[in-house]
Every structure is written in structure tokens, then in C-alpha cells.
Here is the input.
Amino acid sequence: MTNKNNLPILAILGGTGKEGPGLALRWALAGYPVIIGSRQHEKAQATADELNSILESDSIQGFENGIAARKADICVLTVVYSAHEPAIKSLKDDLRGKILVDATARVDFRNPIPPTPPSAARLAQTVLGDQVRVVAAFQNVPAAALRKNLDQPLKEDVLICADDPEDAGEVIKLAESVGMKAYYAGNLDNAVVVEGLTSILISMNKHYGSKTGSINISGIDKA
Ligand SMILES: NC(=O)c1ccc[n+]([C@@H]2O[C@H](COP(=O)([O-])OP(=O)(O)OC[C@H]3O[C@@H](n4cnc5c(N)ncnc54)[C@H](OP(=O)(O)O)[C@@H]3O)[C@@H](O)[C@H]2O)c1
Here is the structure.
């Protein structure tokens, strides 16, 4: 896999749905080597081919989730929220030594209510143990915003939760590489509030007829 920019290799696990491909497109455009993961290699490759045709490049590859995770430096989990825990358990060995960015918001689009603690990311950290550094991020970034106006930077802000602020810093770089402002927002327990914000945003999108409601932070000067 070519990596002329010496950037970390990113794997988007469950990257064949709505959220994963948008993140993949954005990071590939920013120069990151990107791998799409799926339970099925053929499905991952089909999504990679589709995204490469949009980008007119071959910078995105597709593999089965476990292989994708092993090939990557940073993994981003975008499986459907109802499969979060089994997916984490099945990928435990493959994720060893990596940062896992957990984008899970356990909110049902049809009946949006805030989830209860522990946060999905805290649960992931508990299952995966200290061999994996879990960072929660991107739960409030809508798939529809990622896919449109690819030539423009994203305007969404991102709240990043991690037990180690240094790990959060790695993911802040990923968000900033595609134009988003990203803020360290405390440890993994706080991520349940970020997931809950998704419930609010879905409700607002429905009420106001939007697909791209998100958040912006004020009052904090990021030097
Ligand atoms: N959609 C959004 O706007 C948005 C925004 C922010 C955060 N998120 C979060 O991002 C995550 C993905 O959301 P999404 O809307 O992209 O979901 P999705 O399209 O419904 O599903 C994503 C992928 O999950 C995989 N999957 C389905 N069942 C699975 C199972 N039993 N085990 C393992 N993998 C399974 C599928 O991949 P394969 O069949 O290829 O394995 C599917 O393509 C969710 O946690 C969601 O809360 C979504």
C-alpha cells in the first residue's frame, strides 16, 4: 500500500455502511492510506472500488475486518450500533496494539433516546483490555455531511473522549486533517453524553427536515 506521506494506515471496520465510506473518502483525500473492512472481503472490495472511482484513484483497499485491523495503525469502528459488542469481541486479537476509534452512538433513528452508561467506548475498552487504546469520536458527524461537498472542509466540531489525552491527540489530528475542529472532552465515560447528543441531533433533524445537523463549540480558544 503506497504511503508517500508517511501517515498512519487507517482501517474503517464495518466501513461498508453509511458512516464509514464518508470517513474513508475524506481521509483518502487528505492523503491517508485507507482500508475498508467488512465481514465479507468481496463487500469491502466493492465499497473500496466505488470510493476509488469517486476519487479517481486507487488509494482505498478492501479486506475482511480482522485482516483490515491487522494491516492498520489506527482502526475506526463504524459497525451498526446493535452489533457493537459482538464486533468488538470478535476483533479483540486483531486490534491488539492499535488505537481503536469508536464512532458508535447507540441510538435508534426511529426512536431516538439517549443510551445509558457505560458508553459504548467504555464498554469496548473493558472488553479489549489495556492492549488496545480506545478513543471515542465522530458520533455526532452525520454520514450525509461527510459525503457531500467533498471539495470543501467539514464544518462539524468533534468531541473526543479518551482515558489518555495523548491518544485523543492522535484522533484530533485525524479530524483536523479533514477540516473539523476537535476538542478533548474527557475520559471514555463522558462519551455516553456524546452518544446522547446524537439522539438530540436525530430528533432535531427530523423536526427541521435536515440530514446534516451537528454541533459547534463556542467559548474555547484552541491555540
Ligand atoms: N449514519 C450516521 O450518520 C452516523 C453518524 C455518526 C455515527 N454513526 C455511528 O456509526 C456506526 C455505523 O453507522 P451506519 O449508519 O454506517 O450503520 P449501517 O450502515 O447500518 O451499518 C454499518 C455496517 O455494519 C456492519 N454490520 C451489520 N451487521 C453487523 C454484525 N452483526 N456484525 C458486524 N458488523 C455488522 C455492516 O458491514 P458488513 O456487512 O460489510 O460487515 C454495515 O455495512 C453506528 O455505530 C452509528 O451509531 C453513524
About this structure: Helices lie at 19-29, 41-55, 65-71, 84-90, 120-128, 143-147, 165-177, 191-208. The two ends are 35 Å apart (CA to CA).
